[in-house]
Design brief:
By secondary structure, the chain is of the alpha+beta class. Strands 9, 10, 11, 12, 13, 14, 15, 16, 17, 18, 21 and 22 form a 12-stranded mixed beta sheet that branches. Strands 19, 20, 23, 24, 25, 26, 29, 30, 31 and 32 form a 10-stranded mixed beta sheet that branches. Strands 2, 4, 5, 6, 7 and 8 form a 6-stranded mixed beta sheet that branches. The longest helix has 22 residues. It is globular and about 85 Å long. The protein starts with a strand and ends in a 23-residue tail after the last strand.
Length: about 900
């Protein structure tokens, strides 16, 4: 029998309802259907508030088709208050003849929602540090340990609920009775600590024992708070030089009695057995200094432990974390262990990743014997390729002893690596076994939402590489690279990659957190409206306003709204958006960008020499002016949606004037651009800079010529690359887009794969064809920006796109081409799973496609046989929820062979 069911209930953009920082959290639910249910839509819903025993407190019935971010119906939550929420939907399914059948869902499972500490006054804990003085004030801060023994009354009876609220100035791990609290790594992550410090809420009920003494232990490393980050002389202690923590343990007994333990100067402290823990340089661990039972034994000797002291409570806002925490997400065994030509012991894990090693420690031949682990992303001439690390040592050291634990893994550092070099392994051949080593991949625990595959194995590998680069660079914030002495939240990288990221993972909580840091630093630390170049700002901005990079203030909130349908992304960021447009952008007398401001622009154009990555073929001011039109268009639309009609009118008028001025400056009447490059034309087409179809057609023809002339190799950097395939497809030249996608010579998307890449490179030629690493100082093998082509794979190859923000109305319009004979795209959207799977049979010229639309949604389907070059006047079929089959006769346009375009003998050849 056909039925609809609710598969999940969530609150705001949290991955869990525990410790939520909202008194009235909005509620969302996803659907799935059984029994061939077709064309079902919700007409009303019920939200039931129940207690822990599933006893009804109150039920609310609302006539609405909405199921995403609906208003909280109940009384506002107070700090620490929890309830359970159940949802039931009422709707109807309409058959092919128009008959409607009422079908309701069952009640969802009850989902806990519990408020965190909503007011600063809820905190009674103190910011607590050690009285141990640093020996080396200019060096790294040695990690510290803190412990506290505390009784839990037997007279109060059994424990009903226990919550731990905790954060640190640094990164921490917490333990209760020797049991690790939670599974977070590098908590609380990196935020703009001067403005926003995040804390986590943990349910620790099962870790406590009533009627006896318990022990609470916390270990704190320097992390981003006091560690070395960024460039320049001020590399350490950007936010402070005292490692400290704040912890508040609240216990509620079934009798109603309460007990609270807080961090304060009654705790004891000691130096950690981890003697050094740095972001860039790695960790040192001395097993001889390990203190057995420090976090588990209430009777452990505290004679060597020192007092603690209280520091002033942070002036930053202490906020419940909405960002998913960093966790150990995947574990990889070695692919092979071998000797290099020089006799070094090397381990290949087969995948470039971000994380750390987990090591089964060998027996110690002598007390204090050192084993060293060095990390790198690549080999160069069969040796560990460490030059791209620049000033990062990426080295961990372990000193062995007779009292060591069985296994060891760093606690407070991470590395970008595929290969590890091991020195001092105490066996005759200095070779560990595969069972001795594991690579642990760390990244923020976002929910996977997007999948893509096709009939071409290299394209599948490209998509897999994009996925791994995103995982490795979404560690607390969207970074540029995970390997060298940088790892910063560069604004330009995420600006171009956000549409891809939003498909692959649920990034809403992650990027919401990052955008709030951007606003905090932009609006509070300067008065010129210019956001930082990196967020959090670890380097300062000596370049002045930058298009594409600082445009993230407008474009990424818009991308988040498009992906989620949540207007709060725009509302929350609107002051930041306005400040950038009204004050930050450097305008000249004609309203365009001031041409005397140097721009990062189309960064890492493939022709840029290694020592000058900003030397692009496309004029940097042209890029800035094209982006200006896009930014003004976007903020005008955002203003209108937010009801800011005066702003909307002002920005729309400015956009119209700037579009005209741009055309006067750069576009000939026929549609040719003064900047005769792939990037220039891709921007012109995608940003709507051409006046009418004739100009657009001329521009499309010229872009096609440039693609042919480049032998289908890429000619774009960070700005142009996300747009190229879209610009070709949107003007009917989708076969050229496929030709570029499938090209394997350098520079191209597939060239790195032919060279063994398992992630996306920073440069098109991070490794040159002879296997040598590019000599440039900026050469990372794990950058996601150039992987933004995956957005085109999802949209035009896989065929999935949204019509309305939030994916309730879906566009299914695949463009079969190239040598591909099939493709599949799936997206777990706000309403449920969306799928498009197509196959092409070249023998009989047939095309078949299966489309899955989730309940309470609809899709507009365009078959390849009905495609129009500009998309106007295409025949489409609108379908409701369910599984739908389509087929038609279709033979793609001829796939252009490389030999079809002959270069004139009078033209300079493109360098291969």
């Amino acid at each position: 029998m056909a039925s609809v069911r609710i598969t999940s209930v969530s609150f705001e953009h949290h991955s869990t309802g525990l410790g939520i920082g909202h008194a009235t959290p909005r509620i969302s639910w996803r659907f799935a259907s059984d029994g061939g249910l077709q064309n079902w839509s919700q007409e009303s819903y019920e939200i039931q508030i129940v207690d822990r025993n599933n006893v009804e407190i109150k039920t609310y019935h609302l006539e609405s088709s909405q199921s995403v971010l609906v208003p909280w119906p109940h009384q506002p939550l107070q700090s620490r208050h929890s309830v359970f929420v159940k949802v039931r939907s009422h709707g109807k399914a309409v058959d092919a003849t128009g008959n409607a059948t009422k079908i309701d869902s069952e009640w969802s499972s009850p989902e806990l929602v519990e408020a965190a500490l909503l007011d600063q006054g809820d905190w009674t804990a103190k910011l607590t540090t050690s009285t141990i003085k640093e020996d080396n004030e200019d060096g790294p801060r040695r990690p510290l340990r803190f412990r506290k023994v505390f009784p839990l009354s037997e007279q109060s009876g059994a424990i009903s609920k226990a919550r731990l609220y905790i954060t640190a100035q640094g990164v921490y791990e917490a333990f209760i009775n020797g049991q690790r609290v939670g599974t977070e790594e590098l908590a609380p992550g990196w935020t703009s600590y001067n403005h926003r410090l995040l804390y986590s809420t943990f349910d620790v009920t099962s870790s406590l024992v009533s009627g006896q003494s318990n022990i609470f232990g916390v270990e704190v490393g320097e992390g981003w708070f006091a560690g070395r980050i960024g460039f320049g002389k001020k590399k350490r202690c950007l936010y402070g030089d005292r490692l400290a923590f704040i912890a508040q343990l609240e216990v509620v007994y079934e009798s109603g009695d309460r007990y609270t333990l807080v961090s304060d100067n009654s705790w004891k402290s000691h130096l950690s057995a981890t003697t050094r823990a740095e972001n860039y340089n790695g960790e040192d661990y001395d097993t001889r200094e390990e203190q057995d039972g420090w976090n588990s034994d209430i009777n452990a000797d505290e004679q060597s432990w020192t007092p603690t002291e209280e520091l002033a409570f942070p002036s930053a806002s202490i906020l419940a974390a909405e960002i998913p925490p960093i966790r150990a997400m995947e574990r990889l065994s070695p692919l092979k262990i071998f000797k290099s030509k020089s006799g070094k012991t090397l381990v290949d894990f087969g995948q470039n990743l971000v994380g750390k090693l987990e090591v089964r420690l060998p027996a110690a031949p002598t007390d204090g014997h050192q084993v060293t682990f060095k990390h790198a992303e690549v080999l160069e001439h069969d040796e560990l390729g460490t030059r791209p690390l620049r000033g990062a040592k990426a080295t961990d050291n372990v000193l062995l002893s007779q009292k060591q634990a069985a296994t060891w893994s760093p606690k407070f550092t991470f590395h970008g690596f595929r290969y590890a070099q091991i020195e001092g392994w105490p066996t005759d051949d200095a070779m560990p076994s595969k069972d001795d080593l594991t690579a642990v991949a760390l990244y923020s625990d976002m929910k996977r939402t997007g999948w893509f595959s096709c009939s071409d194995s290299l394209v599948n590998k490209l998509h897999d590489n994009v996925l791994w680069s995103m995982k490795g660079n979404f560690v607390s914030l969207p970074t540029d690279c995970p390997n060298r002495d940088e790892r910063l939240g560069w604004t330009g990288d995420i600006q171009v990659f956000a549409p891809t990221a939003n498909f692959l993972y649920d990034t809403k909580g992650f990027l919401k957190n990052w955008l709030e840091d951007l606003s905090a630093e932009q609006l509070n630390d300067t008065d010129n409206g210019i956001p930082p170049l990196v967020v959090p700002d670890a380097i300062g901005n000596t370049l002045g306003p930058q298009c594409a990079w600082h445009d993230v203030a407008v474009l990424t909130p818009w991308d988040m709204y498009q992906a989620s349908g949540d207007l709060e992304f725009l509302r929350r960021q609107y002051p930041s958006m306005k400040a950038w447009v009204d004050k930050g952008i450097g305008r000249g007398p004609n309203g365009l960008w001031d041409q005397n401001i140097w721009q990062l622009s189309d960064w890492l154009d493939p022709t840029a020499p290694p020592e000058e990555p900003g030397a692009a073929r496309t004029d940097c001011v042209l890029v800035a002016d094209a982006y200006l039109v896009r930014v003004l268009d976007t903020i005008a639309k955002a203003s209108q949606l937010l009801g800011e009609s005066a702003d909307a009118e002002r920005y729309a008028k400015d956009a119209l004037n700037i579009r005209k001025t741009f055309a006067q400056e750069y576009i000939t009447p026929s549609g040719l651009l003064a900047g005769d490059t792939q990037t220039a034309y891709a921007m012109g087409i995608c940003f709507g800079l051409f006046d009418g179809q004739n100009q657009r057609k001329k521009a499309a023809g010229r872009l096609s010529h440039l693609v042919h002339d480049a032998k289908y190799r890429i000619g774009t950097g960070f700005v142009g690359t996300p747009l190229m395939c879209h610009a070709l497809s949107d003007t009917g030249n989708y076969q050229l887009a496929y030709k570029m996608l499938l090209e394997q010579s350098c520079p191209s998307w597939l060239y790195p794969i032919t060279m063994g890449a398992t992630t996306i490179w920073e440069r098109w030629d991070s490794t040159v064809p002879d296997g040598t690493i590019n000599p440039g100082a900026m050469t990372s093998f794990n950058h996601y920006a150039l992987g933004s082509v995956a957005h085109w794979l999802h949209k035009d190859v896989g065929g999935l796109d949204f019509i309305t923000p939030g994916w309730q109305s879906i566009k299914v319009r695949p463009l079969p081409g190239g040598t591909l004979t099939s493709a599949n795209a799936e997206y777990e959207g706000p309403y449920g799973r969306i799928e498009c799977a197509w196959k092409l049979n070249a023998d009989d010229g047939s095309f078949s496609m299966t489309v899955v639309v989730p309940p309470n949604s609809s899709a507009e389907v365009v078959l390849p046989c009905d495609l129009k070059e500009d998309g106007e006047g295409e025949k489409s079929t609108t379908v409701g929820s369910g599984t739908h089959e389509f087929s038609c006769a279709y033979k793609p346009a001829d796939y252009p062979p490389q030999s079809e375009y002959k270069r004139s003998m009078f033209r300079l050849p493109v360098v291969d």
